[in-house]
Amino acid sequence: MNNELDCAIVRDLLPLYQDGVVSEVTKNAVQEHLEICSACHAELQALGAWEPKEEAPSTREGFALFRRKLNRKRFLTALVSIILTTAVLVGAGVVAHQIPLVPITEQELTVHRTYRYEVDGQPYFLVLYEVPAYTGYTNGGFEVIGDEKTELGPLTLQLKWKKTVLARTLDWTKTDFWVFNAEGMNAGKEIANFAQLKHGDRLLWSEESGATDVPEYVYVLHGYYTGQTEEPLNAFFEDVEKGYLGVCYQDGRRVVWDLDGHVLADDYPDERGNYPNF
Fold first, then answer.
1. How many angstroms separate the CA atoms of 71 and 73, rounded?
2. How far apart are CA 102 and CA 137, in angstroms?
3. What is the pTM of this model?
């Protein structure tokens, strides 16, 4: 073949040669021709570059590269997921403890007994209550409702108990008692003259209904609550469903009352530390 035919063939092969898809024999032949033919060399430069392209990676190398990219992508995805999950949990915890509280309804709060009594001339309320256990924060207290300009009332003391919006009700209930200084809740007035105590629309105590005798356990629990008791207590216990509550003193003595104040047991443990049934 003459040089013109050879150049025509080479120029037809140049695009394939440049892309690296020719056989090894053809590749070597084209390279030899380019070294002696300036015209074909210029044609190749016009196509892009004189130096042949690097060979494509082998199948094994390509697969390894793919796995590295895939693992890096999985790692980044997992990292982003962890960051987002942590942010959500932290945000939920902040929201659960900082968002406004909502009232616990009359149906949720059960008040078993309410007593108004006095200790050292100061008026107090004791409320024996039962409420569902909640996840999250709860808060209880009193609010004075009435004419703030009237020193002697009549005033209503409103029992307030709130929970966070996100709180869930658990499958058990909590029974406990509150002791409140009624005089301290009287907004600075000289005389506490609350005519009634309510939770929502439910009347818990009034001057008319509160004339019954105050049980002994009210004063015992008052001392336990305030720490002002001559006989130190170890524990307060109750089972309102069975209708009793009691205390254990540090010397081992146990006293149990029913909710109306009748003594059900007043005893000490036996040599094994067990109390008699009542």
1. 5
2. 11
3. 0.56
| Confidence class for position 71, pLDDT limits 50, 70, 90 | low
What pLDDT, in 10s, does the model give residues 134-175? 887 777 766 766 654 444 456 677 777 788 887 888 888 888
User: What's the rounded Cα separation, in Å, for the pair 271 and 141?
Assistant: 43
Q: How far apart are the first and last CA of the chain?
A: 123
Per DSSP, the three-state class of 59 is helix
> Beta strand 155-164 with 194-199: parallel, antiparallel or unpaired?
parallel
The predicted structure's pLDDT at residue 66: 57
DSSP states of 161-197 as a string? Answer: EEEETT--EEEEEEEEEEEEETTTTSTT-SS--EEEE
Number of H helices, E strands in the chain: 5, 12
Query: Which ranges of the chain would DSSP assign to H, the alpha helix?
Result: 3-19, 24-36, 38-47, 59-98, 216-226
Quick one: which of 276, 274, 175 has its CA closest to 221? 175
Q: Among all chains, which residue has been given the structure tokens 């469903």? A: 241
124: number of Cβ within 10 Å: 22
Whether cis (ω within 30° of 0) applies to the bond prior to 123 is no
Q: Mind listing the pLDDT tens digit for each residue in 177-208?
A: 888 877 665 544 444 567 778 787 888 878 77
